[in-house]
From TrEMBL:
It comes from Massilia phyllostachyos. It comes from the Bacteria. Keywords: DNA-binding, Phosphoprotein, Two-component regulatory system. Residues 4-120 form the Response regulatory domain. InterPro entries: CheY-like_superfamily, Sig_transdc_resp-reg_receiver, WalR-like. PROSITE patterns: RESPONSE_REGULATORY. This is Response regulator.
Amino acid sequence: MTKRILVVDDQPDLRLLIRLSLRTLGEVRQAESAEQALAMMAADPPDLVVLDVWLGHGQSGIDLCRILRLDPRNDKLGIILLSANGQQSDIAAGLAAGADDYIVKPFSPEGLVAAASRLLAR
């Protein structure tokens, strides 16, 4: 069965980089906001969400992560947060919100693929 990955980032160029990096792992869909991501997930739940912490206007990636973790249907959902904020307190806040992994930008595509592979394999 093909794994489904949802990339949520407000920057089109970053969504493209992430999509191209992860395309060998499954079907990669994209959303530019937390609201769009929630609508897409209701219609077709993914196995993994790669989520930017800063999504411009509206809800943040941390907010969306918390919302996703409140829903028991997302118990097996893998969540990777991406952020330019790499302080220990930022990482701790992301993990406390329910993320399985927190990757600091700029990131290595290989590192992202390794983290995504690990979460999709569980």
